[in-house]
Design goal:
The protein has 4 helices and 37 strands. By secondary structure, the protein is mainly beta. It has 2 domains: 20-126, Sandwich (Immunoglobulin-like), CATH 2.60.40; 134-495, Neuraminidase (6 Propeller), CATH 2.120.10.30. Strands 1, 2, 4, 6, 7, 8, 9 and 10 form an 8-stranded mixed beta sheet that branches. Strand 19 (237-249) and strand 20 form a beta hairpin. The N and C termini lie far apart (64 Å).
Length: 504
């Protein structure tokens, strides 16, 4: 009954927001003050926004008898009344279109016992470059117990429309559950995509143009099915890490959860030939997180060197030595025509810094390497010290992206197709849930103050007890329905062939 009541209240609140977000005319008589408006979410001075983003609705967290909010952009303006903004989307986009490359002033008029006051304006900059119109992400309860409720979703970032790509519950049973993860696309287009389904009726879903297949990437010569994917930008090839993974929990630390690899390798899957072959299979190296350069001629990945001392107690030893797992970033040259890789080349020696690097992502122009770094391990989504870092591949300069990072977790990051926007998850709001943040990345290699993914209801996140992870930009939506994916998943997975060499 309590759950139902909560959603009733939510619906009532949303109706109130809609009713209060009406167009208005600012008062003609007011007193200018130097007071700064207190708003939630923190859409305050210093953020740069795309001209095609959904309205940045916010609520005032300050006292007042009445509120009017006015956007001023050149000779255009737009005003709404109410303690919560609810901008009409077409009017909002009209203002932003007119403000490309310019600033928008956000004026707050608040009525007090003394009359109307106008507060010091908030300034937003509108970038000239758009953001990709869609994003996708996984929604998960952070308890890691109710995994049956997992879903992969897509959001039209120009408005508030959200759709489910696939939902665990479509194929789960009372005694059998699924775990979906690692959705990925080639070149931001959804006609080439993949995601994994673990456990019940498990397999890897491959969408290759008009063809949809469910495959089993595990062979007698590999340690597991594919885990972390990287779709080659020009060929029907996907690089995977294959990992035998264990999960453990801290009892007295804020980091809470560790996901540790017990074994790992890198493999290449040829979609057209339905063949998988090893890229790396060194038993002393723990490879993970492959990522291609935009031209497809270089494969980046992370790896930690670890020598097991007692193989009879291998798993116990790995858990006990968890702080020793520190991952460096490497790369290999690649010839797409011969499917051949060159030797490993060290890109970042994070271990020498007593750090661990994860999740390398190359900017679309090939210049910047974006990655996460924490004290140890490869599962930084619960590591309070995890921050985002950047390497300029032209100058080899490494820096902490201080303008983006917070005092809590930053992880799971992605580049927009034009390289001007970064999308990442953060626990900065409450320390418990990961939310999606967007930051502008300018042509000088500097990121700007990030802002929270907007929702129609500015109080949405306070009543949403799930986390976002693995965000991806998309040029277009996934058009295959969840029910269609479920029908494919109801079939047996197609076995793949193992090829002993990655060359012809």
């Amino acid at each position: 009954m309590l759950h139902t009541h909560k959603h009733t209240l939510y619906a009532a609140l949303l109706c109130t927001l809609i009713l209060t977000g009406c167009t208005a005319t600012p008062p003609k008589q007011y007193t200018d003050t130097n007071t700064e408006a207190a708003v939630h979410p923190s859409y305050t001075n210093g953020i740069t926004i795309p001209y095609n983003i959904a309205p940045l609705n916010f609520a005032y967290t300050m006292e007042g008898k009445a509120f009017i909010t006015e956007l001023q952009a050149g000779n255009q303006s737009l005003a709404v009344k109410g303690k919560h903004t609810d901008w009409e989307i077409k009017d909002w986009h009209r203002i932003l279109e007119a403000s490309k490359g310019k600033d928008i002033k956000v004026y707050t008029y608040v009525q007090t016992d003394k009359g109307w006051e106008r507060l010091r304006p908030i300034t937003w900059h509108v970038a000239e470059e758009p953001i990709d119109p869609y994003i996708s992400y996984r929604i998960i309860a952070p308890s890691y117990v109710t995994y049956e409720e997992l879903s992969i979703r897509q959001r039209h970032i120009e408005n508030f429309d959200e759709q489910i790509i696939y939902n665990n519950m479509l194929q789960s049973e009372d005694i059998n559950g699924q775990c979906i993860n690692c959705h990925h696309y080639r070149n931001y287009k959804t006609d080439n995509m993949q995601f994994h389904v673990r456990q019940f009726k498990g397999g890897t879903m491959i969408v290759n143009g008009d063809e949809v297949r469910k495959i089993n990437l595990k062979t007698d010569s590999t340690i597991s099915a594919g885990v972390y994917p990287a779709w080659h930008p020009t060929h029907n090839l996907i690089a995977y890490s294959i990992n035998d993974t264990g999960q453990s929990f801290h009892t007295r630390k804020n980091n809470k959860i560790e996901v540790q690899d017990l074994k790992s390798d890198l493999v290449l899957y040829d979609i057209d030939r339905n063949e998988v072959s090893h890229i790396e299979r060194d038993t002393l190296e723990w490879e993970v997180f492959p990522a291609w350069s935009p031209d497809g001629k270089t494969l980046y990945y992370c790896s930690a060197h670890m020598e097991i001392q007692n193989h009879a107690q291998r798993e116990r030893e790995i858990i006990d030595r968890y702080r020793e797992f520190q991952y460096n970033i490497y790369r290999k040259s690649f010839d797409p025509e011969t499917r051949s890789f060159g030797p490993s080349e060290l890109v970042l020696d994070a271990k020498s810094m007593n750090r661990s690097a994860t999740f390398p992502r190359i900017s679309p122009d090939g210049r910047y390497l974006l990655f996460g770094m924490g004290e140890y391990g490869c599962f930084h989504i619960w590591h309070k010290d995890a921050d985002l870092y950047l390497i300029d591949l032209e100058t080899n300069q490494l820096r902490n992206i201080e303008e983006v990072n917070s005092g809590d977790v930053e992880s799971y990051h992605a580049w927009s197709s034009n390289g001007r926007w970064m999308l990442f998850t953060s626990r900065r709001d409450d320390g418990g849930y990961t939310r999606l943040y967007i930051a502008y990345f300018d042509r000088n290699g500097k990121a700007h103050k990030p802002f929270l993914l907007p929702q129609r209801n500015p109080y949405f996140y306070g009543d949403y007890y799930k986390s976002y992870n693995v965000p991806e930009f998309m040029a277009e939506p996934v058009t295959i329905t969840p029910q269609e994916f479920a029908r494919y998943l109801d079939t047996d997975a197609q076995a793949v062939n193992y090829r002993s060499q990655t060359t012809e």
